[in-house]
Design goal:
heterodimer; A: 181 residues; alpha+beta; 2 domains; five-stranded mixed beta sheet; four-stranded mixed beta sheet; 31% helix; B: mainly alpha; Cytochrome C Oxidase, Chain A
């Protein structure tokens, strides 16, 4: 199954390849001479559709990716979510030891005791699943539902000083009903 | 005087010396700072052993230095062409250089003597919260260094603003706003004036935004009871950072507008869509910075929406218009490939292609899994290394060119190949690392990430070798002072 990262990778490669092809086409014909007015007239006609296409694409992607809004409402009550308070500090994470169950939405309330950190949630294969910033004086609410039980890792995603690279923690997610992986 | 070297661009002895100072310093700094970048990639490859402390000092110097040096070199491009249309002050141009060098010395002193490693973004409150790694004094010297550099750029912009207003009446007329809706556009209205005016407006505001957060952070360094709102400080920092880097691109692109027709033989004239593109971008570049704060969920929702939409929008006007202009101007023009036009085409390719991963990352739902991974240095290295730097090199190669219209030498051909292959591979490894979810700014990498780092290190060596070749050729040419520029 393709992850978001895979989709982004494919889209990026396709986009860059498309740009490269256009440039190669132009470079290939650059040393031959054609009437400038004719080239400009043809380019002008294409430009209209090119820009219109970009506008329609931009509007379509905007609508498709912003509804529903991809970031949880920061004011909404937790409701049935399992709430986990997270505090980042130089250089570690304070997380409650309690169990987290798969299949239940978890609301991570993330803040920092000192400088800016980034709360990055990774699966056991090292794939980034979700993130939010940990900022002093601010609490960001990240909602994530673990699909499977297992061991997950938290890495820091905002540069925070000397041991930024070593700032990690583990989250154990149990199967529904509390059985540990 | 050939059409490639018009009379209005002739340099006096003093002007030539000042320009050479900018460009030769820029080249030397680029090579030094690239070698810092290589050092970091070698350390992440586990091919050399440096302490995390040294790694972060190098990272801070690399980031701050590159951002500043791109600004310095691109302001030389703006100065060179703008002085054809308005009367700029040479002492102010030199003062900007002096401020830059003083600021750079302070930054280097703070990092390598004071051990400051707070990154070029100096995100509050990290500069004053190092856990004893560096002192508040080192952080203060670093921030004063930035302020001194900013002062130089601000002086340069104020002088340019004064000169433009004297000729065009006001900044709006210089931007061509009077022709947006009606009237016949003056086809001879210079693109250089339009782009310079835009940069003056946005980057003066950007630098002032940066100065506010720097001064507040300085006060906090010595009066800890004066506490900043971390989210507000971050907003100011990224407003400054985004606007400054973008302004550097826009200053460099002036060289593309000016030089393109001289090498394709196809003049192009001012048009209403071009003016609309720059007017729209004047606004967009000021409001787009929240795309750096999409993972700060406490930001107002409307700001994040603006961040995403403006990210898409910012790509459209100037970049798409410029790329289109270059492609149609080059297509079947019958040009002869010379170093400046090769570098211009490479630059516009690098800018266009580099914007693809950047725009995708500006989408909130993508940013959730790409923000602050190596995807980010992947896209900004793409359009800086393969976009802006070739623009600057094109300008420098033009300056050293002669009437003889020399074809590309074997050495330059070799350099171009190494630069393109090395550059694409280097940025590709960042993007691949981002795809694999590698966090950015890690002094030590897990073993499974190292293959990307190792390939990137080899690619960086190629880029630096090419840059050394280019720099040697350009520096020799500049110091020889081609007849056309005397």
């Amino acid at each position: 199954m393709m992850t978001i990262q895979d989709e982004v990778g494919v889209l990026t490669l396709a986009g860059i390849a498309g740009v490269a092809l256009v440039f190669l086409y132009v470079i290939h014909g650059a040393t031959r001479k054609a009437d400038a007015a004719r080239v400009e007239a043809r380019a002008g006609a294409i430009r209209k559709w090119f820009f219109l296409g970009l506008l329609v694409l931009g509007a379509g992607v905007t609508a498709a990716t912003l509804a529903p809004f991809p970031i949880p409402d920061q004011q909404a009550s937790a409701g049935t979510r399992h709430v986990v308070d997270v505090v980042g500090h130089q250089w570690g994470w304070r997380l409650p030891p309690g169990p987290i169950e798969a299949g239940i939405p978890v609301e991570f309330r993330v803040t920092s005791a000192d400088v800016n950190h980034g709360f990055g949630l990774y699966d056991s294969s090292g794939r980034l699943l979700a993130q939010t910033q940990a900022m002093p004086g601010v609490t960001n609410r990240l909602v994530y539902t673990f699909a499977r039980p297992g061991r997950y890792r938290v890495l820091c995603l905002e540069y925070c000083g000397l041991v930024h690279y070593g700032m990690s923690a583990e989250i154990v997610v149990s199967a529904a009903g509390g059985a540990r992986p | 005087m050939s059409t490639r070297y018009p009379a209005g661009e002739t340099l006096t002895r003093g002007e030539r010396r000042a320009l050479n100072l900018y460009l030769v310093s820029g080249l030397l700094l680029f090579i030094l700072l690239m070698s810092f970048g290589l050092t970091m990639r070698l350390a992440q490859s586990a091919w050399i052993d440096i302490t995390p402390n040294h790694f972060y000092q190098i990272m801070t110097a690399h980031g701050a230095g590159m951002v500043g040096t791109v600004g310095l070199a691109s302001s030389a491009v703006m100065w060179f062409f703008l002085r054809k249309y308005v009367r700029l002050s040479l002492p102010v141009f030199v003062a900007n250089y002096a401020c830059f060098m003083l600021g750079a010395a302070l930054l280097l002193g703070a990092t390598f003597v004071g051990r400051f490693g707070g990154a070029w973004t100096f995100l509050y409150p990290l500069p004053v919260h190092s856990m004893g790694v560096w002192s508040a004094g080192a952080a203060a010297v670093f921030m004063v260094g930035y302020l001194v550099m900013g002062l130089g750029f601000l002086l340069f912009y104020l002088d340019a603003m004064r000169a433009i207003v004297r000729v065009y009446g006001n900044l709006g007329r210089a931007l061509g706003l009077q022709w947006l809706f009606r009237g016949t556009v003056d086809p001879s209205h210079p693109a250089t004036v339009v782009a310079s005016t835009m940069v003056i407006i946005v980057n003066s505001l950007g630098i002032l935004g940066g100065a506010v957060v720097l001064v507040m952070s300085l006060v906090n360094a010595y009066a800890s009871e004066f506490v900043l709102d971390a989210l507000f400080a971050k907003n100011l920092t990224y407003f400054f950072g985004h606007v400054f880097v973008n302004s550097s691109i826009y200053m460099a692109v002036i060289g593309v507008y000016e030089l393109l027709p001289r090498y394709t033989g196809r003049p192009w004239s001012m048009s209403r869509p071009f003016l609309w593109a720059w007017a729209a971008n004047t606004v967009l570049v000021l409001i787009v910075y929240p795309h750096h704060l999409l993972m700060d969920f406490a930001m107002p929702r409307w700001a994040m929406v603006i961040g995403q939409i403006a990210s898409y929008g910012e790509g459209l006007p100037v970049f798409a218009a410029t790329a289109y202009l270059v492609l149609t101007n080059v297509h079947r023009s019958g040009l002869r490939w010379r170093m400046p036009i090769v570098l211009i085409v490479l630059a516009i390719f690098g800018w266009s292609a580099g914007i693809v991963p950047a725009i995708i990352d500006g989408t909130i739902s993508v940013n959730r899994v790409m923000h602050n991974t190596l995807w980010v240095p992947g896209h900004f290295h793409f359009y800086l290394l393969l976009g802006v730097l070739p623009m600057l090199l094109a300008f420098m190669y033009h300056l050293i060119g002669g009437r003889a219209d020399e074809p590309i030498s074997r050495g330059d051909e070799l350099g171009l190949t190494a630069y393109l292959v090395g550059g694409l591979t280097f940025v590709g490894m960042f993007l691949a690392g981002g795809h694999a979810s590698e966090p950015r700014r890690y002094a030590v990498h897990f073993a499974e990430w190292r293959p990307y780092d190792q390939v990137a290190s080899i690619a960086a060596v190629l880029v630096i070798a090419a840059m050394l070749l280019f720099a040697a050729r350009i520096a020799r040419g500049l110091l020889r002072a081609p007849a056309e520029l005397r």
